[in-house]
């Protein structure tokens, strides 16, 4: 649980950040992206919302549609975890290059 995120929360934040709609995904979009059943995605979003990582917002063009957005905290946590992953990859680079060279031969 690096930077206070579970693996599922990390995947949720990535799905929200990476979604193509400028207003953010719906819970259905997130469920499809994460290969979850709708009710499981609702529970994941509920927990992330309670943790202050995401928020629900009505779509201004269609009030029946609820969109998901990262909060400032959610964005910060995602950046922190991404930085840790990049540090880990930099640390592992020599071993990865060695493996790659062995495969390329």
What is the gist of this entry?
The protein is of the alpha+beta class. The chain has one domain (2-104): Arc Repressor Mutant, subunit A, CATH 1.10.10.
List the keywords.
single chain, 105 residues, alpha+beta, Arc Repressor Mutant, subunit A, two-stranded antiparallel sheet, 2 strands, 14% strand, elongated
Write down the CATH class.
Mainly Alpha
Main sheet attributes: strand count, strand direction, barrel closure: 2 strands, antiparallel
Q: Could you tell me the strand content as a percent range?
A: 5-15%
Radius of gyration: 17 Å
CATH architecture: Orthogonal Bundle
Report the principal-axis shape.
elongated
How is the largest sheet built, in terms of strand order? 1-2
How many distinct folded domains?
Answer: 1
**Residue share in helix:** 55-70%
User: Kindly, what is the distance between the CA atoms of the first and last residues, rounded to a whole number of angstroms?
Assistant: 38 Å
What string gives the helices and strands in order?
Answer: HHHEEH
Helix-and-strand structural type: alpha+beta
Count of distinct strands: 2
Please name the CATH topology: Arc Repressor Mutant, subunit A
The CATH homologous superfamily name equals Winged helix-like DNA-binding domain superfamily/Winged helix DNA-binding domain
């Amino acid at each position: 649980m690096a930077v206070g995120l579970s693996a599922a929360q990390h995947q949720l934040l990535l799905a929200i950040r990476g979604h193509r709609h400028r207003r953010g995904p719906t819970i259905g979009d997130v469920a499809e992206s994460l290969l979850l059943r709708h009710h499981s995605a609702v529970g994941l979003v509920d927990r992330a919302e309670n943790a202050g990582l995401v928020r629900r917002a009505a779509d201004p063009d269609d009030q029946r549609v609820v969109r998901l957005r990262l909060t400032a905290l959610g964005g910060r946590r995602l950046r922190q975890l991404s930085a840790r992953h990049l540090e880990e990859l930099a640390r592992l680079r020599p071993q990865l290059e060695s493996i790659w060279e062995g495969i390329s031969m």
